[in-house]
Amino acid sequence: MKAKLLSLFISLTLLLFVSGCKSGGQSGQETIPADLVNNPNSASGTAGKGSLPFIQFEETEHDFGRIIEGETVSYAFSFKNTGKTDLIIAEVTTSCGCTVPSYPKAPIRPGEGGIVKVAFNSNGKRGYQSKNIVVVSNTQPNTTVIRIKAQIVNPSTEK
Q1: What is d(CA 135, CA 121) in angstroms, rounded to the nearest whole number?
Q2: Residue 127: inside a domain, yes or no?
Q3: Phi and psi dihedrals of 140, rounded to 5?
Q4: pLDDT, tens digit only, all 159 positions of the chain
Q5: Is the peptide bond preceding residue 101 cis, with omega within 30 degrees of 0?
Q6: For 126-153, b where at least 16 C-beta lie within 10 A, e where not — what string?
Q7: CATH number, domain containing residue 102
Q8: Which of 50, 54, 58, 101 allows an S-S link to 83, with CB 3.0 to 4.6 Å?
Q9: How many distinct structural domains can be found in the chain?
């Protein structure tokens, strides 16, 4: 009896492991082929940083100032690849569902630039708001944080 239970447990564990490994990511999302990312880091921590891409934003923070509750505002953060190899932005995430980013999906060659556009919907927000946008790329370090700020006002409650 114990042998049958153990056999069943092992079979279920293997089935879950194999089925979990097949997805390879979220459905509907395109993935970047691994051979496009050339990040020569080693386990010793010594990397040829001179051969890596480098993302340099013109500015890393934007203040919208005072905006009326319910407005949707947007800003385009310009950047340049000042590194030696192609820059690949894997994803851009935000700290709130009210902030929606868009970014280039194609590799950015050395010396070229691009834009990370961020739209902020202030509906249901009040007071001072600060939202982080995390850009994940094949740089070292692999994350860069940019930020938007705003003071949300409701004209009907202010006198």
Answers
A1: 20
A2: yes
A3: -125, 110
A4: 666 655 655 665 555 444 444 434 444 445 555 445 555 554 445 555 568 999 999 999 999 999 999 999 999 999 999 999 999 999 999 988 899 999 999 999 999 999 999 999 999 999 999 999 999 999 999 999 999 999 999 877 655
A5: no
A6: eeebebebebebbbeeeebebbbebebb
A7: 2.60.40.10
A8: 54
A9: 1
Q: Residue 102's domain spans which residues? A: 57-154
> For residue 37, is it within any domain?
no
Question: Is 159 part of any domain?
Answer: no
- Separation CA 148–CA 125 (nearest Å): 14
CA dihedral 30, 109, 42, 103 (to 10 degrees): -40
Cβ(141)–Cβ(92) below 8 Å? no
pTM: 0.69
Within-domain flag for 50: no
